[in-house]
Specification:
Elements: H1 5-27, H2 38-41, H3 46-63, H4 71-100, H5 104-114, H6 120-126, H7 129-155
């Protein structure tokens, strides 16, 4: 457990960052008044998400590997962060959907149907907590793998 303490810390930071991002999206109206722009602006979460991985791997390099870290060591560390982020993703989605923005799914369904982009049935099947939890459990490891593979290149140091 002591060997992965840094990864657990950064996975928790990632989860907190995600919740803060959801608060920001809600505050600027992307979950209601400006839901038509949500699909564009929600992708900008990639910037702080990548930053968390960079800081996490730099922390691991400095405080565990004493300033030196191979690509493989960074990659393994990043994948451990990803594993914990994936485990935390249902909780962050639940908190988001229940406390931060409880009307998001209803708003997204209404927008999708009224804009003619989808049917009521398809929107209801897509915009719900269960589906978003499944998406998180699939998306987190995929995006974590890609992010880790790239960030590990830049954080290695011999």
């Amino acid at each position: 457990m002591k060997n992965i303490k840094i990864e657990i810390k950064w996975a928790i930071i990632f989860a907190i960052m995600t919740l803060l991002w959801m608060v920001l999206e809600k505050a600027v109206g992307l979950h209601d008044a400006h839901i038509d722009k949500h699909v564009i602006y929600t992708n900008f979460i990639a910037v702080p998400a990548i930053a968390v991985y960079v800081f996490g791997l730099l922390d691991k390099r400095k405080n565990f590997y004493h300033g030196k870290m191979t690509y493989l060591q960074g990659f393994i560390s990043g994948m451990i962060i990803t594993a914990f982020v994936t485990v935390l993703s249902p909780l962050t989605q639940y908190i988001t959907s229940t406390f931060i923005t409880p009307d998001y799914f209803q708003n997204a369904i209404a927008y999708g149907v009224s804009s003619g982009k989808t049917t009521q049935e398809a929107a209801e099947a897509y915009f719900n907590l269960e589906n978003y939890i499944i998406q998180g459990l699939i998306g987190a490891p995929i995006m974590g793998l890609l992010t880790t593979a790239i960030v590990s290149i830049f954080t290695q140091k011999k």
